[in-house]
Amino acid sequence: MVVIGIFNADASVLGELRYTLSKLTGQGSCALCDITNGWNPFGKKSWKEACAESELQIDLIHRNEATLDQLRVAEPLPAFITEKNNEWKALMHGQEMPAFQNNPSALLAELIKRY
Q1: Angle CA(107)–CA(110)–CA(115) in degrees, nearest 5?
Q2: pLDDT at 63
Q3: Do residues 69 and 88 make contact, with C-beta atoms less than 8 angstroms apart?
Q4: What pLDDT is attached to residue 20?
Q5: Beta strands at 2-7 and 87-93: parallel, antiparallel or unpaired
Q6: pTM value?
Q7: Residue 102: helix, strand or coil by DSSP?
Q8: In sequence order, what are the beta bridge partners of 89?
Q9: Is 1:81 a contact under the CB 8 Å cutoff?
């Protein structure tokens, strides 16, 4: 079971700087970033452990790495999506993610239910 998480940030040095500045000034955020990385560029240990124990394969990409079809179904970002029957399907959007901030295992369990 493959699930793609799409960050509400761009993959580039400039994109990371823009995201960091917007987060520091309170003008932007990404719940998926908070769950998977926080301020650690190598990723949170709790996220990595939860993924290692899950039956899901989670692929994380930035919004500028997603296709237009992926972005259409993922809006509003961030989001978790999957492909079924050659169509993209949203599993969870950003407004639901903060509830799982400190419990990535519960987040992955919820994604499995919705898969």
Answers
A1: 125
A2: 94
A3: yes
A4: 61
A5: unpaired
A6: 0.86
A7: coil
A8: 82
A9: no
